[in-house]
Amino acid sequence: MAPSSIQSPAATQPDSDGGEKYAKVNWDELDFSLTCTDYMYVARFSAEDKFSPGNITPYRNIELSPAAAVLHYGQGLFEGLKAYRREDGRIMLFRPDQNALRMQMGAERMFMPAPSTEQFVDAVKQTVLANKRWVPPHGKGSLYVRPMLFGTGAILGLGPAPECTFLVFTSPTGHYYKGSEKAVNLCIEKKFHRATPGGTGGIKSITNYSPVFEALKGAKAKGFDDIILLDAATGKYIEEIASCNIFILKGDTLSTPETLGTILPGITRKSIIELAKELNYKVEERLIPVEDVLAADEVFCTGTAVVVTPVGSITYEGKRTEYRTGEGAVSHKLRAMLTGIQTGLLMDSKGWTVLID
Ligand code: COI
């Protein structure tokens, strides 16, 4: 279960800032709860202007007009990526350009100017370097980076904000499903949906997540780690897990829902498709009926937060189906390949990683 405690910088700051390599964090206990770090990056711009250059500022609460468009019209996007420390101590980002491109795609859909790929990647680098002492030691987790773009300008009538803010903050993180790292137990949600045809499911809009909170809370109360959402049009096909993308494996064929507007084009999803093809698995992006999930040999989730997490069981209409997990599983092999590249243990022949120090 993902805990929700918050640690403030004051609670974790070292006694002196004089070149100390690491913040005072119990690196062995990291989970996905928020630990506030020292600095964030902020850039503001008006609808007419291009992005103004941003600045690194101390991490603090932000001031918003009660009429800010993000608060009542939900004009906002977020991203998630990670910085990893290699064995030699140097710090790498994983495919930050892909997050920049996805933010640009979302910004177009939600009528906001977006930072260029160069500004986005530079902002992420600056924020990570400013918070360097919060990047966990090699093998202990990662510094999760949360870039956001949202309408901060005040407005009453329906329309895009006259001013937007691009903000990047970080938090050291460990496993998303702390306590269920080996395999998660999911249930299929029939009543609530994440996305609708013509809606914003295909971009990382802030509006995509809270609509399933009620279902998620109910599932967690029954002991499940997360929920699988079905398509809103027919209720026959799996779309996503509340927090990530989903893959199923049958024989040598890996399948994942096709990104036709209701599925988030995950960067981990895209990377796993490439790695699986390299291992000679057949990969299909298609509609996946619930029956195919129940007949699969393996199911696993992918996402920046969850990385690659095997699914141990899925419960649907009261019936529990179990799947292969553990060292013999394909998900194990794919996870090892991906995290090997992300943490510098395996050679990155694809140019996915970016050294920043
Ligand atoms: C991520 O994986 O980075 C996400 O944004 C998912 C979020 C629910 C933690």
Automatic annotation (TrEMBL):
The record's SUPFAM superfamilies line, in alphabetical order, gives: D-aminoacid aminotransferase-like PLP-dependent enzymes
* Residues bearing the modification N6-(pyridoxal phosphate)lysine: K204
Q: Which cofactor does it need?
A: pyridoxal 5'-phosphate
Write out the entry's keywords from A to Z: Amino-acid biosynthesis, Aminotransferase, Branched-chain amino acid biosynthesis, Pyridoxal phosphate, Transferase
**Per its UniProt record, what Pfam families does this chain match?**
Aminotran_4
Keyword Transmembrane belongs to the record: no
Q: Alphabetically, which GO biological process terms does the record hold? A: amino acid biosynthetic process; branched-chain amino acid biosynthetic process
Q: Which PROSITE patterns match?
A: AA_TRANSFER_CLASS_4
The pathway entry for this protein reads as: Amino-acid biosynthesis; L-isoleucine biosynthesis; L-isoleucine from 2-oxobutanoate: step 4/4; Amino-acid biosynthesis; L-leucine biosynthesis; L-leucine from 3-methyl-2-oxobutanoate: step 4/4; Amino-acid biosynthesis; L-valine biosynthesis; L-valine from pyruvate: step 4/4
For the keyword Transferase, the answer is: yes
| Family statement drawn from the similarity comment of this UniProt entry | Belongs to the class-IV pyridoxal-phosphate-dependent aminotransferase family.
Q: What protein does this entry describe?
A: Branched-chain-amino-acid aminotransferase
Source organism per UniProt: Turnera subulata
Q: Lineage from the top down?
A: Eukaryota, Viridiplantae, Streptophyta, Embryophyta, Tracheophyta
